[in-house]
């Protein structure tokens, strides 16, 4: 069995995950433990923008031959080895910096580690593609992903469990030494047949970009790629400061990471099942909804911080992440021209990263201004574009009134849900009830216009249930009150929308 799977790619996956761990979960946890402000922690995440532009230098890494090392290892492994050795040095330097007194030094090293990590990714992606002369591509990909998850979750969990006894400077030294050991995998792995060295040049970058403009609905595709994972990216960098402020220990985080590792496989399997059973478009839509909902669960964790909630919410969130990632990567495959696979994949990945990384740079300011609870609700708003565009794909990307009304109904439902969960000062009872009445009346009217004849009764029942569920969630949060009068106002508004719908339909029949 093991002969069919390249075990060296397990170690390559671990190596690829470590730069993201060092500049992500580990960094935000370490800096919050040291007492840095959330705004300063958030700004450091902007260093991740470096990897978002790796498509600019990927053609050169695929062409430039490193003297001496190229003759011994070949192009891919020589760049891999150099990046791993430099990462070891950079992480070791990180262990000798005081984040309180040398914030600029931390920022410079984060930029350097991110840049070196992107070089490792470029070389490793190309090496994995060309390694298929020894092993099937599917086996290479699955083994690599397992290694990546082992590095980010299992190894990360082990590190968190030891943070009290070892302290972070020692942990960073351990990671630096680990990079040195992982570089041995590069040295002893097989040399591949690097066929496309002569064709790799900056001209390919321009040709790949030019090819993208030939695609139908390019602007919509680019918007979808940019916003599909943006809410998750923004939330992720504030997750570990949240855990720290709530008092979760390193052992708690280690248990969470173990659950996340298991949940990854559930999410990937679920995505494959739904995509194969229904369609890729359905998978994208379900993934967008799943991400939005699980983002909101972190508000519940903030209100009820205990180990059970930490494990359960992260387990569900990781399933959502794995599901959305699998669907998204499958979608990218359908967009990429095989003549420009590496470059177009890098362009799309960069587009996915840039908006989220820019926004998460200011996530600390938002938390300090509005608290964690409202921050996670705000992340839900950022997930709305992905839900709407993916639903448009489900509807066959057809521009017509029916699809427009259905998308408007979905938008209104999500906005009402999120506004109802925000922790805001409540206004006077009279105005509040009028707002409830007219909001649900408008949603019912628009939804009925968009629905089929046999679905209208179901829509009314679902809207009434929706209003009841929201009131229950408000009571559960303890930040807003559960009010029977709100349920009555919501229900009356729903029936008011139904009345307006029949009135308008009868009027249209008379004039036609």
TrEMBL record:
The chain crosses the membrane at residues 7-26, 38-57, 78-97, 103-124, 136-159, 171-189, 218-238, 258-275, 282-304, 310-334, 346-366, 372-393, 405-422, 434-451, 458-476, 482-503. It is found in: Membrane. One of its GO terms (cellular component) is membrane. InterPro entries: AmpG_permease/AT-1, MFS_trans_sf. It comes from the Bacteria. It is a multi-pass membrane protein. SUPFAM superfamilies: MFS general substrate transporter. Its main location: membrane. This is MFS transporter. The lineage of its organism: Bacteria, Pseudomonadati, Pseudomonadota, Gammaproteobacteria, SAR86 cluster.
